[in-house]
Write a structure and sequence with these properties.
Layout: H1 2-12, H2 17-52, H3 59-62, H4 73-99, H5 103-110
Helix pairs in contact: 1-5, 2-4
């Protein structure tokens, strides 16, 4: 992919592995935070919509007449926190793996 070429260029220009890993970690975390915030906004919008216009259910099948929605801020915070931890771990591991490649290896892997 293009990342491998970027890594090869940065490393051949003298960038340290740590610097390359930090650059890709930062970019990955920014994407992860954007995704988490987007999911939070979308989920919050759906919750508000379901509170304003309840989703009706067949009470003879589900034993309730509408879909109950009860958002709890503590649970939402936990979900966001866990998502951030997993995103940070996977982004960092990927960045460290990519930064460990020499410029020649990165260019060879591109093919």
């Amino acid at each position: 992919s293009n990342k491998l070429t970027d890594i090869a260029i940065l490393r051949s220009m003298g960038a340290l592995r740590r610097s390359v890993a930090n650059v890709f970690t930062l970019h990955g975390l920014l994407l992860a935070v954007a995704g988490i915030l987007g999911g939070l906004a979308l989920g919050s919008g759906i919750v508000v919509l379901l509170q304003v216009m309840p989703f009706k259910l067949d009470a003879s099948v589900y034993l309730i007449s509408y879909l109950p929605v009860d958002p709890r801020p503590v649970e939402i915070a936990w979900i966001v926190g866990v998502a951030l931890v997993f995103a940070a771990a996977t982004v960092r591991l990927g960045a460290l793996y990519a930064a460990s490649k020499t410029p020649i290896e990165a260019l060879r892997m591109k093919k």
